[in-house]
């Protein structure tokens, strides 16, 4: 019996230095036919394409691993999930079930947390812009507030005066640790503003300094930066507690910034290899903390505000190839139905993108095609990835863009196209986290003034 | 005078080693004007007279020049990305079905990062290696060099890692000009102006990713020491070489063996602090005025000039294969100083069918061609 | 005269060499089948049927894939310049 030949799209590629290895890109050509045990075809049939797909088991496991890594090294640890990373309420609710607090940076996010039943006392309110009303509510509900500016401290003083009680407040600090500049958030340590803020709070009759907050950046691949940060934070802690004996720092909030295994465009080595483990981050942060506080009677609580490290690798996107393009310079392009409208982090990341269907591997006479992956927008910048090595694909085939849980849904927008559904896989069941948008949903807030409502001619 | 004594001891101490028979897989086949050390390693083995077996080349692109060198390789195999250890390991397993690999010597800096996670599995498929531990490897990383040196009291140039070209202005204000622009894995250029630094920044980021390192320029001559360390972290051999001529890429194109005790002591101290195992190359510049040695770079492999070590009396590649096989070696006898290497280019002519073979089957059989050697 | 350049060297293992330009190309198995048929002189019109028969695929896919493949060949300048447009 003649062996059944696996058919794939007939393809020819020119041999060029740098792409002359049939085994190169073998990883991408591995099929990703299912997500958490559910077939991609079935997911598309049931919920459409493009589609966000979250994996409940993985999300819970990430949280547990992170919590364990830190709680084994420091006795008082609280994780507050960073809402801005992905504020799908189902995702936030999942982390709250695991014991997470909410870390929010706007009144809008604050309200999502309240609507999920999170008590105000388990919400950390951060960010450079908090309105008077938002602050007042947070004070009343005993949330942890980390002030970002002198203006905010004045605002809080007024609120305390109005409510006639002392208000606890933390201050966001920034320091120069590495090249990236996060100095516009909070009070500069080097400029002495952090100390001035502490002084202002100490002078105020209405405010009490209860915590120090810092967030040093995002996708931080060098764990040593955390160690240096904690060491300097502790120096500052020593400075203010010795200067103002009445101050009791209840918490040190070291923010987030832990990396996911995604690969930044400028990283030559795959993110999986440069991404520190939770244990390595925990060592960098907790070793200086324990050596500082093991001798002291008082031990502040350690707050963590992770987002990316929890959700990025647990949510994937299914997209479908809609057209192939031969570009005038001899390169090839694939148009997908998901673009930067849904995957804005493609600007930073080189995603792990895999075909859903089986293709011939290199050993089976298959070849890889070097392609640019474009989105569906009528806009030149809509490119998700350049120079992806993929098996020959034809229109209608599905692709899985893996590890896109962080900052994609929450930064996606309705430019040209509406946003698709999001689902979560729990065991063998798949349920909506969010329905696909429709035109009515978008149009309901619009108003057409009477004089614009009639078409001329 | 001490040089003469040492040369004499070399003659006296040269011992007979039994022949070893094993197949060795090597990477680093691209011998261009910025060469990888694979061919030099293979040649040292071939000419040692103490080794018998086959040499397999492991390549990452069909244009790597060593692929077609039947004088050095019996078979060549295309490999998947070594930073995807699972695929890399599967490929090795597949190769081992028909071609037994007894010793694997990775010769590219970035390979080590992925392969250090595999060392415990190699043994299971009969492959012996001599790869440093992951923590030791982390210390060798170029980004960690200044920290490593300052903690342990070694001199090294000041260095800053940057991601954005805008940072060049402030860094150059601190480090001065000229400044050395380096890739985190590979690549190095001396920039004499900010504009030149910006050009090199982009060039390096494009090829080797970020961060890009800016290193203080230390005026002086370049000295390399290639060493071999056994599993007990004892140095088995070490050869010093001073570069006599550089290419326009700054690569040594000619060099001479020498012996400076203070440099040798420094190398041993560095290796000890690194807790290193396996081949290693330490690159120094000797400050023109102070005469101090500054550690410029640590390579987790032998240098491209390692054939010189074999000809000067310490066949470090052969010893590395012996160590990988589990042999215990005494420190090698002193090498000869004053041995010079001069590198030259040579065109190899071969049928296009060889390219077709490696492109389509992922391997190239060069066996059946007798080893003629080039001298 | 075949649709593809008659000087093209086709290696059974999936490698094409164009001695006129010095370029070489990698092809997958179905592409090799097509190239060999074309070199043997099979007209384009009969190719779709041959492809369908060989791999048991439906006509819509065969038609779409073949058109795309011929477009690739055109752009890589592997078609016989003496022939009129193969798309006719």
Globally, the shape of chain A reads globular
Helical content of chain A, roughly? 25-40%
- Let me know the average pLDDT of chain C: 88
Q: How many beta-strand elements of chain A?
A: 23
Largest sheet of chain A: 9 strands, mixed
Strand content of chain A: 15-25%
Radius of gyration of chain A: 25 Å
Number of domains of chain A: 2
* Gyration radius of chain C, rounded: 12 Å
**CATH topology heading of the largest domain in chain A:** TIM Barrel
CATH architectural type of the largest domain in chain A: Alpha-Beta Barrel
Could you give the order of strands across the largest sheet of chain C?
A: 1-2-3
The CATH superfamily of the largest domain in chain A is identified as Alanine racemase
Protein structure class of chain C = alpha+beta
Low-pLDDT residue spans of chain C:
none
> Which range best describes the helical content of chain C: under 10%, 10-25%, 25-40%, 40-55%, 55-70% or over 70%?
40-55%
Count the beta strands of chain C. 3
Count up the domains of chain C: 1
In N-to-C order, the SSE pattern of chain C is EEEHHH
Low-confidence runs of at least 5 consecutive residues of chain A: none
Keywords:
heterotrimer, B: Dna Ligase, domain 1, 2 domains, 13 helices, 33% helix, globular, disordered N terminus, C: 88 residues, alpha+beta, 3 helices
Quick structural summary:
Chain B is α+β, with helices and mostly antiparallel strands and 375 residues long.
Verbal overview:
- The complex is a heterotrimer of chains A (457), B (375) and C (88).
- Chain A has 457 residues and is an alpha/beta fold.
- Chain A folds into two domains: 26-53 and 314-438, Lyase, Ornithine Decarboxylase, Chain A, domain 1, CATH 2.40.37.10; 56-312, Alpha-Beta Barrel (TIM Barrel).
- In chain A, 29% of the residues lie in helices and 24% in strands.
- Chain A has helices spanning 26-29, 40-47, 56-71, 89-98, 107-115, 132-140, 150-163, 193-203, 223-243, 271-274, 278-293, 308-311, 439-443, and strands at residues 12-14, 34-35, 38-39, 51-55, 77-82, 101-104, 123-125, 144-147, 167-174, 187-188, 207-214, 251-253, 263-264, 301-304, 315-326, 332-336, 349-350, 352-355, 369-374, 383-390, 398-402, 422-426, 429-434.
- In chain A, helix 7 links the parallel strand 8 (144-147) and strand 9.
- Chain B is of the alpha+beta class.
- In chain B, the strands form four sheets. A six-stranded antiparallel sheet of chain B has the order 15-14-11-12-13-16.
- The two termini of chain B are 31 Å apart.
- With 88 residues, chain C is an alpha+beta fold.
- Chain C has one domain (9-75).
- Chain C contains three helices and three strands.
- In chain C, strand 1 (9-11) and strand 2 form a beta hairpin.
- In chain C, helix 2 packs across helix 3 (59-75).
- Chain C is globular.
- In chain C, 33% of the residues are buried.
- Classes of the chains: A alpha/beta (457), B alpha+beta (375), C alpha+beta (88).
- Chains A and B meet through loops of A and helix 4, helix 9 and helix 13 of B.
- Strand 1 of chain A pairs antiparallel with strand 3 (23-27) of chain C, so a sheet runs across the interface.
